[in-house]
Amino acid sequence: MITQFSRSEILLGAEAIRKLQNSRVAIFGIGGVGGYIAEALARAGVGALDLVDNDVVSLTNLNRQIIALHSTLNQPKTKVAEQRLYDINPKIQIVCHNCFYLPENSADFNFAEFDYVADAIDTVAGKIALAQQAVRANTPIISAMGAGNKLEPTMLKVADIAKTKVCPLAKVMRSELRQRGINHLKVVYSEEPAITPQESEEKTGKRQTAGSVSFVPSVMGLIMAGEIIKDLINGVH
């Protein structure tokens, strides 16, 4: 019988599609990276997704975020993504968590319920807490390193955090995780030296607003989704 996953089944096999349909993945951060993770997982047939974000779609998201349209401006990212994903696969199960993941609210999430976790958030404290919680629950996790101020998607790599280089965020994460007894974390990072951004009129609360384009965070998100899909199919834990 022809289904919307028939082309995937030709490549992956019926058993792989079954595994994906029985999997639940939590995506923390539904922005430039996380939006593409969610889209790719839904199109691959992952049966259940938890979407975690407390932001709304803004004008400056239009240049790179798959859920950002003029028609979705000022709407919660989780709800926009939810509507889009249901339109892709009406049978998918989605749980929206309208909050920013922080160490303070980490206990609100039971990682034992997830088959995989995707970290696409920006804060170091949150990323560390995600890694710690995943390790405690023995839940596979993949983490996005810095995608801002980069222009070369071909320099993105998948690696253990211990083997990363060039990326300042990966360096900080590596050090912080080691202090907490975590020596391994699957990440996607870039070996491209960051470009110094020009001054911005946008007020983000940061000392300097990072620049970004349509073709780096999207590729990072798709690489992460690909790793998640392959690991789910192969039973990597």
Task: Sum up the structure in keywords.
alpha/beta, 7-stranded mixed beta sheet, Rossmann fold, 237 residues
Question: What do these coordinates show?
Answer:
This protein is an alpha/beta fold. The protein has one domain: Rossmann fold. The chain is 35% helix and 14% strand. It is built from seven helices and seven strands, in the order H-H-E-H-E-H-E-E-H-E-E-H-E-H. It has helices at residues 6-12, 14-21, 34-44, 77-88, 124-137, 168-179, 217-234, and strands spanning 24-28, 48-52, 93-97, 116-119, 141-144, 156-160, 186-190. Strands 3-2-1-4-5-7-6 form a seven-stranded mixed β-sheet, sandwiched between helices. Strand 1 (24-28), helix 3 (34-44) and strand 2 (48-52) form a beta-alpha-beta unit. Helix 3 (34-44) packs parallel to helix 4 (77-88). The longest helix is centred in the last third of the chain and has 18 residues, at 217-234. It starts with 5 loop residues before the first helix and ends with a helix. The model has no long low-confidence stretch (mean pLDDT 96).
Outline of this structure?
The chain is built from seven helices and seven strands, in the order H-H-E-H-E-H-E-E-H-E-E-H-E-H. The protein has 237 residues and is an alpha/beta fold. The protein has one domain: 3-Layer(aba) Sandwich (Rossmann fold), CATH 3.40.50.720.
- Terminal-residue CA separation: 32 Å
Helix and strand run: HHEHEHEEHEEHEH
* Main beta-sheet strand count, sense and barrel state: 7 strands, mixed
Number of strands: 7
Mean pLDDT: 96
Assign the CATH architecture.
3-Layer(aba) Sandwich
**Looking at the structure, what is the overall shape?**
globular
- Could you say which structural class the secondary elements and strand pairing correspond to? alpha/beta
The first-level CATH class is given as: Alpha Beta
Beta-strand portion reads: 5-15%
CATH topology: Rossmann fold
Number of helices: 7
Q: What fraction, in percent, of the residue positions are helical? A: 25-40%
Low-confidence stretches: none
Q: What is the count of structural domains?
A: 1
CATH superfamily: NAD(P)-binding Rossmann-like Domain
The strand order across the widest sheet is 3-2-1-4-5-7-6
The value of Rg in angstroms is 17 Å
